[in-house]
Automatic annotation (TrEMBL):
InterPro entries: Acyl_transf_3_dom, Acyltransferase_3. GO terms for molecular function: acyltransferase activity, transferring groups other than amino-acyl groups. The chain crosses the membrane at residues 23-42, 54-72, 92-109, 158-174, 181-199, 219-237, 244-262, 268-289, 310-328, 340-361. Signal peptide: none annotated. Residues 20-357 form the Acyltransferase domain. Keywords: Acyltransferase, Membrane, Transferase, Transmembrane, Transmembrane helix. This is Acyltransferase. It comes from the Bacteria.
Length: 386
């Protein structure tokens, strides 16, 4: 391999990707963006449009468990725990950093009645940027936006915090469990998540973004069930024949995300049951079918690859613009129709920015980190063998 050029395969998983799953991840990321856009007009989760967009995070966790199991379960004879964690760090953390930086750059343009950014000093903002970039949670009452988020500069970073917990659990515990024991872990975690969703305080699982008791419990259950379920799927997976898996899966994700709240404020349990069915039954089936399907035409292949490529960058860079959009809507007292051009610009602009971040930042940084964190070790090891 040339010293001056490192191929994409050097920092990507060496096994072939499931292209349909990559594409479905991109569709789910788009539903998250739309879900967040409509937060500007919601008074609570009850009247939120694109009401169940938060379930995309659970879909991400299932995908993560499946892909990690597929990519790494059979490598542990030659791979150390330290190397695995480095690989996950290289894959995940560059976008965590750029998301925090974008959030910091835009922070002082996001002022509104919901949060007064003018009272935040530059040193406090720098500290907040540093801890967000390091994925250190901000405690309630201390975080600079004042709304209780773990990561006030870029809210979606909370799910990466739990993703890292999943990485550690896999490296030290879950990968070592026999499949039968892993099944019971999934079953118990699923029962806990269902109980939280159906009988919990909110009637949904839109939690995990704060360090309050309910958010910690709910976020932990979301991760433990979905990540473990994905890992279990990777162990028992045997492809089945399915046609149109990408388009069927995409349509299903969009419909499930967009459905209105079920049961209203009087019957919270009904919506909790809906969330449970989506996460515990529908999403695992979608992952199974997506992994079984094949792209057979150029349109599906290209669409899936593009959506898959930008899915993670899109998820990690769009939210600072959501803060800005929210402030604009509230300060100007705009209806959705009045702000529609801004909403469309936000969605399109986030997609463009995600692609630029992927090509100009994420991929080059991952190549650099791979060269200095992984390839150097491999070179030294091969030298010792000689």
């Amino acid at each position: 391999m040339s010293k001056n050029r490192i191929s994409a395969a050097a920092f990507a998983d060496t096994k072939p990707h499931y292209n349909i799953l990559d594409g479905l991840r991109g569709v789910a990321a788009l539903t998250v963006v739309c879900f967040h856009v409509f937060e500007a007009y919601a008074t609570s989760h009850i009247d939120q449009k694109i009401n169940h967009g938060y379930l995309a995070v659970d879909f991400f966790f299932i995908l993560s468990g499946f892909v990690v199991g597929y990519a790494y379960d059979d490598r542990w004879q030659t791979m150390t725990t330290n190397e695995f964690i480095k690989r996950r760090f290289i894959r995940l953390h560059p976008m965590v950093v750029i998301g925090a930086i974008i959030g910091a750059i835009m922070f002082y343009y996001q002022g509104c009645a919901a949060w007064d950014v003018s009272t935040v000093s530059a040193p406090r903002l720098l500290v907040a940027t540093f801890i967000n970039a390091c994925l250190i949670p901000a405690t309630p009452g201390v975080e600079i936006r004042g709304v209780g988020e773990m990561y006030p500069l870029n809210g979606p970073s909370w799910s990466l915090f739990y993703e890292y917990i999943g990485t550690i659990l896999y490296a030290f515990l879950l990968r070592k469990l026999p499949t039968s024991v892993l099944f019971f872990v999934v079953l118990l975690a699923g029962c806990g998540l269902a109980a939280f969703a159906i009988w919990g305080p909110y009637g949904d699982i839109c939690v995990g973004f704060s360090l309050t008791e309910e958010n910690i419990i709910g976020g932990s259950l979301r991760l433990l069930f979905s990540f473990s379920a994905g890992l279990l799927l990777s162990r028992v997976f045997k492809p089945v024949k399915v046609k149109g898996a990408f388009w069927l899966g995409s349509l299903t994700i969009v419909i499930l995300s967009a459905l209105p709240r079920i049961g209203g404020s009087e019957n919270l349990w009904m919506n909790g049951l809906y969330d449970t069915i989506c996460v515990a039954i529908v999403f695992p089936v979608l992952v199974y079918l997506g992994a079984s399907g094949q792209t057979t035409d150029k349109l599906t292949t290209r669409t899936g690859k593009l959506l898959g490529a930008i899915s993670y960058p899109l998820y990690m860079v769009h939210y600072p613009f959501i803060y800005l959009y929210y402030a604009w809507v509230k300060n100007e007292n705009l209806t959705f129709q009045q702000s529609l051009p801004g909403a469309l610009s936000l969605v399109v602009g986030s997609i463009v920015l995600a692609y630029l971040c992927l090509k100009l930042y994420d991929e080059p940084v991952r190549r650099f980190l791979t060269k200095h964190l992984l390839l150097v070790r491999q070179y030294v090891s091969s030298g010792r063998q000689r």
